[in-house]
Amino acid sequence: RILSVGRMVPKKGYDDLIAALKKLEDLGVDFRFHHIGSGEEREKIRALVHRLGLKERVVYHGTLPHEQVIGHYRRSHVFVLACKTAPNGDRDGIPNVLVEAMAVGLPVVSTRSWAIPELIDDGVHGTLVPPGDPEALAGAVKRVLEAGASLELQRRVARRKVEAQFDNRRCIESLFELLRGAVGIP
What we know:
The structure is a single chain. By secondary structure, the protein is of the alpha/beta class. The chain contains eight helices and six strands. The protein is globular, with a radius of gyration of 17 Å.
């Protein structure tokens, strides 16, 4: 069970992800891909899925409440986000969905796009591949699916990083201390 959560917009790289799924199928990997979200490229991505013959492997959930999204994280084997720079220059920073997947303990595969390597050290917290490379993405997803339980340490380390560096309470406390120091309040 492969999961991705995000808007279907150029910077999310769903065209690359769908191409990677076709490569996985060609390699004989049995999978179902679940996508949560909508977006301006929805029909384009659905057409690509149909053209590549992946219609039976892809499940679209549309936009869901956060509680249901968390359930999907927990039922999945790998989370994939194929971020890249869009033709108009739009790009992601650190996508919240990667942080959420790591917090739940779901192995993540993404790209070395902009700030994502600040969240994921390749091989430590997840797997990173070059943006715009469906073949590398397919290979990484295949390796994660085959690794199974051997990724337990990586999953725990990823969760600890999220807890230490991306917990809202800790971030707010740090911001408060910075602001307090900036205005001279002891």
